[in-house]
Amino acid sequence: xxxxxxxxCGIELDNPVIPASGTFGYGYEFAELYDINVLGTFxxxxxxxxxxxxxxxxxxxxxSMGMINAVGLQxxxxxxxxxxxxxxxxxxxxxxVMANVSGFSVEDxxxxxxxxxxxxxxxxxxxxVSCPNVHGGGLSFGTSPEAAAEVTKAVKKVTTKPVIxxxxxxxxxxxxxxxxCEDAGADGISLxxxxxxMRIDLKSRKPVIKNKMGGFSGSxxxxxxxxxxxxxxxxxxxxxxxxxxVASAEDVIxxxxxxxxxxxxxxxNLIDPFACRDIIAELPKKMKxxxxxxxxxxxxxxx
Amino acid sequence: xxxGLFEICQNVPLTESVYKMVLRGNTEDIxxxxxxxxxxxxxxxxxxxxxxxxxxxxxxxxxxxxxxKGTKAMSQMxxxxxxxxxxxxxxxxxxxxxxxxxxLGGGVGVPPMYKLAKNLIAxxxxxxxxxxxxxxxxxxxxxxxxxxxxCVTVTTVDGSYGIKGFVTDAMKxxxxxxxxxxxxxxxxxxxYSASTTSGQFSFEExxxxxxxxxxxxxxxxxxxxxxxxxxxxxxxxEEILWEN
Lengths: 303, 244
Known about the structure:
The complex is a heterodimer of chains A (303) and B (244).
Chain A: E1 6-8, E2 11-13, E3 17-19, H1 28-31, E4 60-63, E5 66-69, H2 78-90, E6 97-101, H3 106-117, E7 122-128, H4 145-158, E8 163-166, H5 174-183, E9 188-191, E10 195-198, E11 213-217, H6 222-233, E12 240-243, H7 249-258, E13 262-265, H8 268-271, H9 275-289
Chain B: E1 2-13, E2 18-24, E3 36-40, E4 48-51, E5 54-55, E6 59-65, H1 69-75, E7 81-88, E8 102-106, H2 111-122, E9 128-133, H3 142-148, E10 151-156, E11 163-164, H4 167-171, E12 179-182, H5 185-194, E13 199-202, E14 218-221, E15 224-227, E16 234-236
Parallel strand pairs in B: 8-9, 8-12, 9-10, 10-11, 12-13
Antiparallel strand pairs in B: 1-2, 1-7, 2-6, 3-4, 3-7, 5-6, 13-16, 14-15
């Protein structure tokens, strides 16, 4: 085992760096730029039961040290992901990939996860519970411990692969939701998804994004993410994947000290397509600087 | 696509709000007219996508309009080095131009027409160009297009220079084999209706990454969903669906 390696829910990763869902497509676009096998793994574009175009444009707004997006889970639907996207990925990525799944009902989640469970390439199922529950008044599954637990149980029933629940930070008590997922059988927790945000154009006096609101990500949210990873990692026994504004090897180390077993990198990929490759290359130097022998040793190591 | 460092050689105003910047660096990944570059600016989170006006082996020319804080900061740069992603977007298909192509640029949609005109003229095509602006003091690059040997018509909305009206008014009397257009969406729509041949349209959209990863700039087309940054910015007339 290398000094950078970590074990995420029973699967060894060469390093803890994972491009986050929605910032890395289905991987092969980045494979044109560098050998993506240097990654620990990556979480592919949020996949739903049916194909989705997503929200109307503009979908993107800039902020100080960050951005807002309201893409709206554009994806070709799980059948096409399996028949078209995964075979393309296989040609350039020989590791297990993390499948990111979204749904608008408990049945949706179970359907999509069952389909992906049959794919050998898929190592983990990362279940995004930030989507609105169409049968539950539109509130996101991730805002109630009961709804998050219900999704967890439904997904666990249809798969033997490790299930990681990806949590929304837009809640009053993140710990109660993480614990509910753990109690329902989740194998891991990943957080934080984007923070709900909004920008207004002063000239037109209209929201910059057509959907009005969107998910705020980027360096600006890093301290919020570190805090929530710390809180959750201290409350659950299952591994935590930390994300939110990570943009450097030092950010990865900080996330791991807060309690993350692995670390996802999101918006940074959009500004610098080589961000993850460069972070991985930088990690050994930073480990030396901070006297870290093995990354495994620092998980939750904050004093 | 390539990420590279480019040295600022020139950065001068052409009008009150449009600037010309000449950069020196590795341009080998720029393969077609109509492509764009994505520029990282200190102090701003997202890059700025800007169309390529002209390029050769080691220089890149962009013409950009100051529309916000980022482009304002760009306009004040005198020297230094910029982190630029090059070779983005599909670019224009020059092989279907026919012998008498018509190029239409509106405002800051004019720049990508320059390299296109240069290439088509070098291929021996008889190129007509219509440049549309709001008013006389916004006009730029008329002489540069003439120097290439193109037949140039300028229109202004207020009639203070050239033909009074829109590019479509100047288009009525033209005979052409194919057309290429870049400009604001109302202009694109007007040309879509007024044109009598096939043609290619350059689209603009707010982008996250500019290289196909984030799905921030998707649009619906006759042939399915496309990303303006990766599958565009150029779409053929036959595949366009007007939504909004």
